Amino acid sequence: MITLTVNGTTHQVDADPDTPLLWVLRDHLAITSVKYTCGIGECGVCTVLIDGAARRSCVVPVAEAAGHAVTTIEGLADDHPVKVAWIDRQVPQCGYCQPGIMLQAVDLLTRVPQPSTEQINTAMNDVLCRCGSHPRIRQAIRQAAEMNAKKGG
Amino acid sequence: MSSEMTRRSFLKTGSLVLAASAVTGPTTLFNVSPAQGAATLPFKPHAFLEIGADETVTVWVGQTDLGQGTHTGLAMVIADELDAAWDRVQVKMALAAEPFKDPQWHAQLTGGSSSFRHRWDLLRTVGAAARQMLLAAAADQWSIPVEQCVAREGKVLHPDGRSLSYGQLAAAAGGRPVPAQPPLKAAKDYRIMGTPRSRLDIPDKVRGKAVYGLDFTLPGMCVAVVARPPRFGATLTGYNAEAAMQIKGVVRVVPLDGRVAVCAETTHAALQGRIALQAEWSAGSHPDLNDDSIERLFAAGLKQPGALAKSSGDPRQALAVAVQRVERSYRLPYLSHAQVEPINCTAQVEAERCRIWAPTQGQTATQLTAARLTGLPPDKVEVMTLPAGGGFGLRGEQDAVIDAVLLARAVGRPVKVVWSREDDFAHGYFRPAQHARIHAGLDRDGQVTAWSHTVAAPSVMSRLMPQAVQNGIDPDAVNGIVDMPYLFPNLSVHYVPVDLPIPVGWWRSVGYSANVFTVESCMDELAHAAGRDPLQFRLAHMAGDSRPFALLTLLAERGGWDAPLPAGRARGVALTSCFESFAAHLAEVSVDGRGVITVHRMVCALDCGTAIYPDAIRAQAEAGVVMGLSTALHERVRFANGGVQTANYDTYPLLTMAEVPEIEVILAKNTGKAGGVGEPVFPSVAPAVANAVFRATGVRLRDLPFRRELLTQKAG
């Protein structure tokens, strides 16, 4: 049994320690907002936060996540600036990649509260969206940063 | 949206429910309200429009949500003609059914940018008919002439200021006959179409609540992955079922025809089980097939005369007397859809019923596939369409449906078939590669007098719609050439089929995705040869009162075609005409000393008729630029040792955030019939960039993806 804390709730999971966190979240805990796309840590669609840092859950063995705080998109409040900005800017098309991309954006904004366009491009360069929502992702990150600044002020 | 879609008992007392059918001829509307004894009607759960006593307006849709915003857009058209209160409108995905078949194609499918252009009258008529019925019901109640009643925002207004809500009127309206030809609004009276609206599906997608095909589960379900031939024509020679069964969670190993499935309690167990199988395969039918041998086959194909797809005038004679002749060849690769959600399908097979849950783009094909396999009549196959993580044409294919049905029957449990990313690349139905040659002639005035175009490419239609292939011509393979927007006095178009075992299929904008690149590149070469401005050169070959002429003019004005440029930058232009719409792209680029192309700015001008849902259209136009640049700079499926070599995104890179330029979208004002959007916004992106690179460097890029080494050599 592995003890896993996801969005503040602790679960006991009967899974092989090598099982990728992705499949434990999806198949054992039914948290299907965490998406499978490449399985090799290439596309970022399965991104979750582990202790606040963006990680590709398809290449993180579940044992490695044990004892750490795992956050998925459900773990962000509905009024979280990133969620609000994503709706305001009408970012998603098919939407499949967006939970992972939003969590990567949360990671960026935690490290760099007011990112420049270059910093956004760099931080978001390795997440994949086939629909082409990129221009709106950039706009939404800028909006979320502004919302954070106002809140902080 | 999806959680409720199997709910059959939605016909609540006191509601007005309309269904529409256009499958067997002109649009016919049916009143299926409870007051009309709807229970006996066969399409009861598939009404287009339901107005409940609780004021809720439900629009049932049959089109797949692939991220285009179509669901919201369909509701906007109906709600506008209905004069509904938009905040009471909801959209639900219906079970696959007769009323949702495409009025022109007689099959339920989402493709060809057809959702609106094939339903423009149908959707408006549904809303307008319900509105008339509500007005008549109110007039009855007030005993005044219907002409004195006005519909507004979900209410009917009495001249004296009283009003009745649609919910209050629904039951009475449900008892009335349906007007056959209700008056439709003039464009100036639209209150919902053409206005900013939020997409109804986005909140669930942002909150992680949307259930895509891959997320779907049923009680008692198992997950299956299938070992499929790694090379074309390879046969299964051995596998270790026992080893697979040793993996914890593996339930069954099921041999199928030429492939073998591992069914397990979890996805990970199924994937591990497949590895443990160690399936062995023969060398296949084309063991020597690789990128080089494929290249040689296409080159040989282009030397064939081919079948004549279109001819006008005498291009041979016109070429002979031309003042200048330009002969150019172009090469385009196989492309993968690379949609983020891998192919999947869930099936449950019972004695009298088969149920399918899939992000399918082809509901009728899915229904017929399951019916054929189970022996059930098609109406005993329930197809529940789930939101798709992208599609771009691939999700009309039925491989996973076949496996899910076969396995659900074999295992006696519901089965979800899941493809890995590697499966998706290895067993795709690719956008066909092609080689093309254009031989064109110019007269003394720099006008094109002859255009002779040969395409060597595999045929998609031979597999998907063989009846459409006539006299050796696959119509998809030559679209964008036979119907190009330019007027040439002498034209010939030839098609040479290239026969390879590589499966090909529909991919965003189909033949236009390739042919617009060659046409628009060559037009640019001719403009240069004639010493004329590329945009003016295009205008000079179109009727001055045509839509593409107006659109290019709009792009030039609003996009700043003639505006001053920073040093080192250049602009290129290209034009698309397809699916009853026109798109024109302007690219602004620079090329550095290492041959790296930077696209600084892209402008897309689009004339898609009435712009029903401007923000979703803009999103599609942005998406078209991103995908267009991705194919221009990066995308190519590679082949080796008789199979697909490309295995994952690490060897099929897509455009990255840093490469996405500033994108401007200009929507042409047009109140005519709604045209396509998702596909027209793609094809002219790559040629606009190639044309800009030529103006920046003097190097003409005639192959996709662009060969950077050509620019390096120039720079070095």
Helix and strand arrangement:
The complex is a heterodimer of chains A (153) and B (716).
Chain A: E1 2-6, E2 9-13, H1 21-28, E3 47-50, E4 53-56, H2 62-65, E5 69-71, H3 81-88, H4 98-111, H5 117-123, H6 134-152
Parallel strand pairs in A: 1-5
Antiparallel strand pairs in A: 1-2, 3-4, 3-5
Helix pairs in contact in A: 3-6
Chain B: E1 16-21, E2 28-31, E3 49-51, E4 57-61, H1 70-82, E5 89-93, H2 120-142, E6 150-152, E7 155-157, E8 163-165, H3 166-174, H4 202-206, E9 222-227, E10 236-238, H5 241-246, E11 250-256, E12 259-264, H6 267-277, E13 280-281, H7 291-302, E14 307-312, H8 315-320, E15 324-332, E16 344-349, E17 354-358, H9 363-374, E18 381-385, H10 399-411, E19 415-418, H11 421-426, E20 434-442, E21 448-457, H12 461-464, E22 490-497, H13 512-530, H14 534-539, H15 547-559, E23 570-578, E24 581-591, E25 597-607, H16 614-633, E26 639-640, E27 643-644, E28 662-667, H17 685-697, H18 708-715
Parallel strand pairs in B: 4-5, 9-19, 17-18, 21-22, 25-28
Antiparallel strand pairs in B: 1-2, 1-3, 3-4, 6-7, 7-8, 9-12, 10-13, 11-12, 14-22, 15-20, 16-17, 16-19, 20-21, 23-24, 24-25, 26-27
Helix pairs in contact in B: 1-2, 2-3, 9-10, 13-17, 16-17
